[in-house]
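Title: Comparing notes on inverse folding

I've been comparing how different people in this forum approach sequence design from structure. To keep things fair, I'm posting one structure and asking everyone to reply with a full sequence. Here's the target:
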């Protein structure tokens, strides 16, 4: 009995409630992920939410808003890249890679960096679909890490955004300092201060959303958490401007128009974070509406929709995600069953279900992933041909702007 008591004290001390950096956030949080069941619900919701949002937004990636509407129409959104099957891209794959590195790291930051870089180097050889240039350059530099070459690239892209989300929920309750872990994880690929700051904002929102009941959620309080998590003026100023839009219940498109992103949201971390934040805060518990509002903005639709889907999923849990979208996620290599097992293992991290040392790493299928990515690349190339046809016949310039400019004489 004495030994069992000592074990219980050890587990509770190491897996206790995470102390939020912002005290007001702690007071506003209605729920804590004390139990493994709650951790699994929110982590599973996050993983599937990112995958679904990524798959819904991928067909419209890099299309302006007008061209995307003309090609695919308005909602309700459905999987359109492969006959109703949800095909996700690098945003989801890199999130899974991060989760696997966390499981194998034994809760040690140095081990996590080494394992992540090793996995990222091999990811480069798997036909990565949609990966940004900064991520690909970082993956290439990982092959030189034994020579002391840092893998990070001076980029303010959004490639590390979904990784920040899973870091937030995995770190929750483990005693680690969330901001430091997210910062070091981001800089493995993106070293620009804005990239790190954007990931801090998204991680803080994911952590806050997972610890608040949907029925009592306060968007303004969550926005305050985001502002406090930011350390750069650019982010703080734009986040504060969202307060008025939330009070007036304006649409995400109105916010995008205000910031000059009316036709598309770029892959830079600033517009991605601002618009993803507002889409979630505007529809915090409505998965379809939040993700659709992100996709309809145009531009880097898969990344923005993946972030929004992850935030909603982390907030409401896996049971409140649309069942038809969950079933539609492609089962090749890493499908819904594999994701569920990954969520179960992460819910025990850093302790395993059978021991007090480490949660076992989820098994992977490298050959299946290679075949899946090659097949997805074929679909993307076919899709690109259709885009070229539409690009030749449509314009992203609004009609009223074309009338005002008139023909040159």
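Reply #1:
Here's my take.
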């Amino acid at each position: 009995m004495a030994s069992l008591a000592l074990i219980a004290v050890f587990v509770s001390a190491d897996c206790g409630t995470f102390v939020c950096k912002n005290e007001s956030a702690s007071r506003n949080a209605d729920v804590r992920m004390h139990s493994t069941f709650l951790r699994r619900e929110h982590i599973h919701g996050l993983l599937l939410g990112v995958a679904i949002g990524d798959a819904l937004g991928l067909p419209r990636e890099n299309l302006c808003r007008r061209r995307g509407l003309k090609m695919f129409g308005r909602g309700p959104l459905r999987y359109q890249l492969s006959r109703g099957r949800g095909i996700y891209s690098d945003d989801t794959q890199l999130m899974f890679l991060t989760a696997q590195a966390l499981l194998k790291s034994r809760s040690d930051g140095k081990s996590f960096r080494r394992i992540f870089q090793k996995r990222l180097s091999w990811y480069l050889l798997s036909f990565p679909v949609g990966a940004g240039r900064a991520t690909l350059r970082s993956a290439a530099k990982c092959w030189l890490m034994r020579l002391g070459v840092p893998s990070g690239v001076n980029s303010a892209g959004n490639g590390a955004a979904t990784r920040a989300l899973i870091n937030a929920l995995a770190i929750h309750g483990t005693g680690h300092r969330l901001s430091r872990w997210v910062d070091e994880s981001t800089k493995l690929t993106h070293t620009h201060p804005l990239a790190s700051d954007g990931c801090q904002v998204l991680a803080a929102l994911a952590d806050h959303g997972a610890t608040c009941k949907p029925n009592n959620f306060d968007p303004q309080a969550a926005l305050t958490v985001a502002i406090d998590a930011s350390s750069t003026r650019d982010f703080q100023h734009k986040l504060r401007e969202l307060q008025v839009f939330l009070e007036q219940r304006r649409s995400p498109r109105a916010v995008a128009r205000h910031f000059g992103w009316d036709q598309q949201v770029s892959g830079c971390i600033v517009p991605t974070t601002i618009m993803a934040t507002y889409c979630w805060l505007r529809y915090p518990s409505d998965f379809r509406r939040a993700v659709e509002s992100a996709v309809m903005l145009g531009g880097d639709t898969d990344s923005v929709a993946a972030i929004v889907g992850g935030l909603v999923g982390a907030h409401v849990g896996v049971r409140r995600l649309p069942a038809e979208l969950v079933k539609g996620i492609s089962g090749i290599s890493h499908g819904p069953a594999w994701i569920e097992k990954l969520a179960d293992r992460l819910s025990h991290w850093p302790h395993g279900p059978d021991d007090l040392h480490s949660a076992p790493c989820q098994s992977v299928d490298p050959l299946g992933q290679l075949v899946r990515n090659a097949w997805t690349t074929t679909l993307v190339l076919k899709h690109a041909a259709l885009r070229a046809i539409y690009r030749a016949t449509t314009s992203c310039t609004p009609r009223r702007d074309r009338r005002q400019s008139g023909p040159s004489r």
